[in-house]
Amino acid sequence: MASLQIDYHSDLKEVQSDEALARLLSDAEQRAPFDRLAWWQGLAEHCGMAPLIAVARSSRGTAVLPLSASSGHLSALSNWYTFRFRPILDGDAPLRDLARDLARRSHRVTLHGLPDEDQTASTLAAAFGAAGWLVRREVCDTNRILPVAGRGFEDYLATRPGKLRTTLKRKTGKVVARILTRFDAEAWSQYEAIYAESWKPEEGSPAFLRAFAEAEGAAGRLRLALAHSADNPDSPAIAAQMWTVEGGTAFIHKLAHREAAKPLSPGSVLTAALMRHVIEIDRVELVDFGTGDDPYKQDWMDTQRPRFRLDMFRPWNPRNWPALGRIGLRSLAASAKRG
């Protein structure tokens, strides 16, 4: 039997100092921001999350499950900035052993934003189920994506809805787009000013977002775009977007425009400019618009993927009985309604 070692880290400096773990969770190994130690460090430092990194290692592989601890109920170490959540598995990862050991620390584990196009949700559900947890799975969100499929920008644009193509034809000449591939403090200040005047809710953690943008800029992965009125290109920007590019994917993190500039459709013009850039210059294979099924995302993206929530309970722990009772009552009510 392969030797097994299970550790829990609430201090992320311990993870950083573990050479093998730090390498596994580094830029060199992980091709999306949400899978890296730096992302979890940002959540802990700027978003007030209490990390608990669960690590199971054997001679055959490693399983890392980034969690957040709260009164015995563990949840995913993620928030509204995270497009999707998944464990980091290397080799023949001892995920089932980790799920079994977690029963010593928690009566309930809730993971949300899980993909299943890579079998993440199914693999986790099977591992926790085999370890004696009661697993409840449900769809919790939608992820809109664009598989580029070898198309050039003009071919892609020809497949967009007629209303969007008409808007771009009428408005593109009225807006000047500028795309930066490195962090620029002045450009970021303009982004923050635009966001404050947009339809968006108050930013959850401006410090987290800026630190992330600075790091991505230093790594050459940032695409920070500003739009100006063509009639007055030296005036303050009227729209801004933040994307990152890596591993063949462009991630659309943030977009906003000043409400007063809405007649110019600067957001649409800026999205088109960035689409052209990532398709023709970065040569990405996929564009990921994150979570949420807003109608404007459907105009730009071709398809959607579900995101799942797994709620795992220790069935005989009394602390879970109220929640399990509520779930049972909702299921009965839904069955009665269908009947």
Description:
- The longest helix has 18 residues.
- The chain starts with a strand and ends with a helix.
- Strands 1, 2, 3, 4, 5, 6, 7, 8, 9, 10, 11, 12 and 13 form a 13-stranded mixed beta sheet that branches.
- The model has no long low-confidence stretch (mean pLDDT about 95).
- The chain is built from twelve helices and 13 strands.
- It is of the alpha+beta class and about 350 residues long.
- The protein is globular.
- It has two domains: about 170 residues, Aminopeptidase, CATH 3.40.630; about 140 residues, Gcn5-related N-acetyltransferase (GNAT) (Aminopeptidase).
- Helix 3 packs antiparallel against helix 9, helix 4 packs across helix 5 and helix 7 packs across helix 10.
- Helix content is about 35%, strand content about 30%.
Key traits:
single chain, 339 residues, alpha+beta, Aminopeptidase, 2 domains, 13-stranded mixed sheet, globular
CATH architecture of the largest domain: 3-Layer(aba) Sandwich
The name of the CATH topology of the largest domain is Aminopeptidase
Could you tell me how far the N terminus lies from the C terminus, measured between alpha carbons in angstroms? Answer: 51 Å
Could you state the order of secondary-structure elements as H and E?
EHHHEEEEHEHEHHEHHEEEHEHEH
Number of strands: 13
**Which segments are poorly predicted (pLDDT under 50) over 5 or more consecutive residues?**
none
Q: Which range best describes the helical content: under 10%, 10-25%, 25-40%, 40-55%, 55-70% or over 70%?
A: 25-40%
Oligomer: single chain
- Domain tally: 2
Structural class: alpha+beta
